[in-house]
Amino acid sequence: MSQDRVLSKAVIGQQTLLNTAGLILGGSLFVALAAQVSVPMYPVPMTLQTLAILIVGLTYGARLGALTLLAYLAEGAMGLPVFAGGGNGASLVGPTAGFLFGFVPMAYLAGLAAEKGLARGLIGTTVAGTVVTLLVFVPGVAWLSTFIGFETAVQVGMMPFLVGMVVKSAIAAMVVRGGWKAVEAHRAKG
Description:
Elements: H1 7-12, H2 17-36, E1 38-39, E2 46-47, H3 49-60, H4 62-77, H5 97-115, H6 122-148, H7 150-157, H8 162-189
Antiparallel strand pairs: 1-2
């Protein structure tokens, strides 16, 4: 049943090892590119990562979305400059590490929302994306607070990002809905 609720499965059909590996690589590169689109803020930059992660999770499903983000973290751990500002493995122990590790459950939960049918319409997908993105602040702010204290971590690691979080969720919802519309139009042509 979840098969017809995940966009990548609707487009590709049966997933083989080769196309799964391609999706993981493509998705991790998409997130890495989105990380480079950033507004430098200290200690947490404002990037398009969460938008990319929502799109990956919502289109790949829970398991494949989480695997994609694990691959992304592994790429950074290997020294590739995939994190914001060209950061690499050092970022995995720095002030933003909680956010980076929180991206894996974020992709998983976005994918789970899609699989359960909670993220199919524009409103439902926006709400699901907003809730899922809110959850990334738990590990993000918790880890950041070990560096700068809890109150400051909330002020600089969460508050400036709340409006953008809703906007990114709405954009992800439009992208995913557009993908479904394209699939439905293709199926209608027969």
